[in-house]
User: Fold this.
Amino acid sequence: MTCQSTRAPNSPPIKSSSSRIYRQQSTSKSRVPPFITTPTKYSNSLSLGLLQIATLIVMDSMNLLTTLSSQDKESIMSLVSDYEVGNVFGGSQSGDIHVWSLYTFFPITRLVGHQSSVLCLTISIDRSLLFSSSGDNTVRVWDSRQFGNALYIVKPPNDNCGDVLSLAWCSRLNMLYLGCQDASIQWISLQCLKTHSLVNSSKNIEHDSNSKLHSGSLSPETSFIPELAGSSISPLLTTDGISHLIPSACSSPHLHSCRPVHHKFFDSLSQADLLKAARRRDSNYNLSPQSRCQVIDSRPGFKTENDQLERFSTADSIHVEGGIEVLFIENKDSISYAHFGYTYSLLLVNLNDQPFLVSGSGDATIKIWTVDLQTGALIRNSSKLLSATLSTHLSPSNPCSPGEEDLGAVLTLAAYGPTLYAGYQDGIIKIWDLDTFTCIRTLFHRESSLSRSINSKTMSDVLTITVLDNGEMFSGCSNGLVIRWDPSFHRVCEWVSHQGSALASCFISRQAKRLLLTGGSDNCIKVWDVSHANNMVSRLVSGEMEIKDPAVMAMAFQDRMFRHLSQFVSYRSISNDAHREECRQAALYLKKTLVKLGALAQLLPGEPGRNPLVLARFDGKSSSPSPTTSRRKRVLYYGHYDVVQAGDEKDWKAPAFVMTGRNGWLYGRGVSDNKGPTLAVAYAVTTLLEQRALDVDVVMLVEGEEEAGSAGFQKIVIDNKVLIGDIDVVLVSNSCWLGEETPCMTFGLRGVIHATVSVTSQRPNLHSGIHGGATHEPVLDLVRILGALVGTDGRIQLDGFYSGVRPIHEEEDKLYNEIVDHLTKSGNVGGSFQDSPITDIKEYLLAKWRQPALSLHKIDVTGPAHATVIPSSAQSAVSIRIVPDQSLEQIASSLEKFLQAAFKSLNSSNTLQVEINHTADWWLGDPKDAYSVAIGDCVEEEWGTKPLWIREGGSIPSVPFLEDEFNAKAIHLPMGSASDSAHLSNERIKMLNLEKGSNVVAKFLKKIAKI
Assistant:
């Protein structure tokens, strides 16, 4: 269902947001504001072609870094971020506030307490306070650093104020301002709140003094308005371009704070009564205070000092609800009819060190209220009329639209310098000059080509505006469209950000990252990179730009790395005959990318019918040789661009070959194995290259047949050894950590022998009812000889099989003890251990990593799979994992001899065939080697903890070969975590792991230049 803006001659009484309906009161029109309270999909008018166009626009203009999802299927109604610690808060339709980290993009916690939608969020960075307003008629105050229950509940002076739609915080005066559904503006001083200690996160989070979160407040340096500063006036910005300064009603100072018990729905004012009271207020400003109080007291349902019920006040007593102290706003701290419609938006601005409150309403007006510097109250005892001329700039990109002045509600406000941005219903944005109170520009959101294609004439209401620190503006509307405007108000680009409405947005600049966050009715927050990284990187690589800030440049490369990875993943580079062309295109794309990053790259042809290899070389720019050689050191990185089949698409949460980001994870086939780590290494090298800090040569050798056994790889390397050059160390990144949080270094891999064992009869398939028991059955023969491979004690029966296993040494034993201690303390023993017959953690790891093993994978038969058929042949896939110091050739020969002997003992008329399909030798590194120590130190420096040195039970055939061929040590840096699901559905990797993995490689390359 899509909520559309409509007109109604008469609106029902005020309802809560929980009723899913809003009706807007106004003197001339009544509209339904565009709050989407249920998850929505694209309307039927949005075709698949438009979706594809929107996707292309995103790729060309805005980089979607990741999606943050709360998993509760609720719209994100409001957003705010804490730039000091790097957290973002999202208020949901259900009433919960979700908290994510902008360092890892992982969910941290959720704040629970509101009983209805969280309509607005604002934050006090200096006091570590988070404020949330809701449709439950309350505001809650939270500790924004130490998460838990709300610190306070703030309640309006009467229950019929409706939903609290907007908030504004004045840190200078410690005042909180509330905009309500009953057209009132209220305020409360929080100066007396108890102080809260901040969480000292300096050990874990690097603070950026240049980080800024732009919430729309004006700087103290902006122009000063003497008329406003010297008097108590409230300018009213109307659609006719005239600034009217209208005083507001005040309540009697003698009124006691009372707490009437009213029902928010049944006791609320009708629209007629509301408008009459509002007009009475404006017509009685010349009356005495006592007369004005009589007018206010005559409101239906309002309880005066003579009523028996008295309001709890913080000055009189403490009221507690659910263990949380309640703060009541006093009647005097409220302007009952600040507008003729809902107070949708509030914004605090500072004009020459004087605070002013800006309010936008459903009556299509904007008011600017003077704030008393002593009390924080809105001053309302005088009026003055200012005149200004409308000056709307028209251009080809901003044509005049019929009926443009027929505006609806002011739904959102933002400010930058002396400029105020206001978003209206029907897709209009007005730009106001706060020096002169004139409208200087009118922008039309609905003039977008995408907006017209979506047929959104009645659903293009501007719901959110965010202005960046450079004056750029992003506006989002109810059809999900977001438009980027430059500081001169020209449309730069546009894209469909959400499948539904773009309800909220905020901007954060941190550690050279410039992120736009949008919350939508599709139950998620999307994180967009709004940095100008594309041009920066191309200029860096071409040498047109000098590096001045390495952090900025490194972040530019990381952001671009994710864009390249997204395109890299889109190639279905499955190493089989059906995908040869896709593999070739993937290789060409990788080559082109590496060339852009500053490498000399080429394709090396594979064997006939096999995929090509990508060979790239980055030359160090330093002329100084290595301390130990007469030349620069040369590092060979080995990786692969081919992937395994995706399997059943139904098992994937998103298309396997479309990279998607969710809560800090990147999903897609190949993101972990091995496209993601390969690009991370390439960007690490390029970062150093552009910093003029690459003092080693780096050769990247990326093959396309690793998942199919690396057929022909060794021959190609030997044939091109001169082109590759002398190698000092081989770098590999093709495995995962032991767990999720602690980084690891891999120093050992098992070898493998893959064999096919077949038993074939000379006769065709037979019927078991006719021939059963009277013939040698191939399946039975096969099962017998395979069963003989393993004894009843589980030991493999091949002659001399265990004699070559290297005994564990003291230093290695210490590494295992460290792993056991880590697993025990963390409680992360692993799910596979729980299902193992081995109950000791250490013995379990030894069995997985450094003990040989035999596995039977499947048995295939010929003929129909029918219970009465005796197949004429049967075959089985067998693998043996070998370890140091077993001989690959000896074990393969022993397997064949054992099976032949076992089959011979059967005296069968059938025929046995043993075929060795593929072999890979074991590999064992040395954690004490200089290169291993160097990269271990780099891991510790980047992650803040020492890595665990682990071994793997799998095999990578090219690693031992490259070591032997180039007489160079190999080191293995895994980037993925244990739950990456490589080769499985929903393969994924943490964005943080790729970023830090790239940083580790960069540190390592700098360090080894001095070895």
The first strand starts at residue 63 and ends at 69. The mean pLDDT is 79. The radius of gyration is 35 Å. The longest helix spans residues 550-569.
